[in-house]
Here is the input.
Amino acid sequence: MKLHLTRSGLQTSVQDRGRFRYRKDGVACAGALDLAALRLCQLLVGNDEGVAGIEIGGGRLAARFEDDRLIAWHGGVYEARVAGETIPARSSVQVRAGEVLELRAIEPSRTWLAISGGIDVPLILGSRSTHTRSGIGGNFLPDGEVLPLAAETDLARALRAAFSTRASSWSAPLFPVRKERLRVVAGKDWTEELGAELQGATFRISTQSDRMGLRLENAVLENVSGGAEQISEPVVPGTIQLPPNGQLILLLADCQTIGGYPKIAHVVTVDLADAAQLQSHNHVRFVAVPVDEARGWLQKREDDIALFAAGLRARFGN
Amino acid sequence: MTWSLSPLGDAAILLSYDGKEKKAADVTKHVVRAARLLEGAQLSGVVAVTSAFRSIALFLDDRTAASLRGGQMDSFAQRVQDVLASRRRIKARNRSVRIPVCFDFALDLERIEEATGLRSANIVRKFLAANFTVGCLGFMPGFPYLLGLPKELKVARLSEPRLRVSAGSVAIAGGQAGIYSLESPGGWNIIGRTPLSLFDLRRDPPALLSPGDRVRFRRITRGEFDRLA
Here is the structure.
């Protein structure tokens, strides 16, 4: 069975949790920029968390279904309708054969969509994620794209049978949004001076930003190492690099695996969801936290997701 | 201890090599060995092992990353050190590869001349005489970082990276050479271009080179480039 994207929206792509295992060959992770949002959507439609869904970068998406499915969407500021009926975010939603799902960005933002069964594009190097820069997994989806859907799980069928309204009574947990002040932990090249500059400045997101990274304008950091070249080392999504021109780059999911610019800090994992929503001309500030605190918030998030998954399984699973 | 651990964000660990070897290619041997030991150990919660010149990154699943607070981090670090201390023998499987390069595509030759004080013919001659070792792959799929660039060819990165560099571009920056396996943004000085494909999903493994491989360049004309491309 297939999904017909009559309108695909802006920078819409198939994403799952990413392609980790080939990082040593220089293959970028890719994957949803807000992994928590995609994982919660997958749980809401009875899928495993690792199944592929759709990331929408803005604009308007319209998708026609060939058969009955559950869908869930989460993230950004969007208006969503199925067959003209408004549907809430973070809920399980019934879509019947022939019906059309519409997602329209009210503000420039990203959102994530899961469909029961999942998007069944070919698995490449262990993932279905799209990395447009390398072409691994293809490109952004054009209008008229037809995507294959895999068969639903027993849990998805049980969920679908459990409610006759359009949207479920249950919803996924909502994590707090902190768009303007992202938390960071110190990187290997952190110094007190750089840290003070980083936390004292307000940055503007450059138009030259994409899924690979956000270029931060407005403020330039004095590179205290005098622009010294460094031996390239591993970088990760969230790494904040300091190139010789002092204009910071915040790396996102599509980033390279290794970089030679000083790594002054890393945005904490739970705040990558907020970095994913930063648009050109938005402003952002940073605040440093200890790594143990960052891991504490990650623990809380993982516990919340696990609790939600366990709750659904307990009520509707075998 | 020859390896020290530090956080690479909250969900990865950076292992830095502190050995005293002078030659970068000797360091590569240690790093390649350590990365293989760590992959073989299949430490619980480690989803990927990435190696660079003098460092290795361990990528953790979210639950494991979240758990590594206080004493938990100390015992994880000890498990990693135990794996690295292993005396187990590991078989080398590295190759020697000749890579054709056409210098008609040397976009930054003038910049390299200025930085090195050498004339272009001399730059090309020194480049072709060099014996390189693949230090690691990274930056993009199949991009080899090549060790062994002659000291006289040391040139700083562009201060403003180019938004687009063609696939196959052979480039130098700092003390390293590299080959852009795909079109991408980049800040290295372009000295030529190869018609070879450095990364191809139809091959297994998709990357042409692996860490520890030895590389030499061979000059080709524009005509040969067009025939091979």
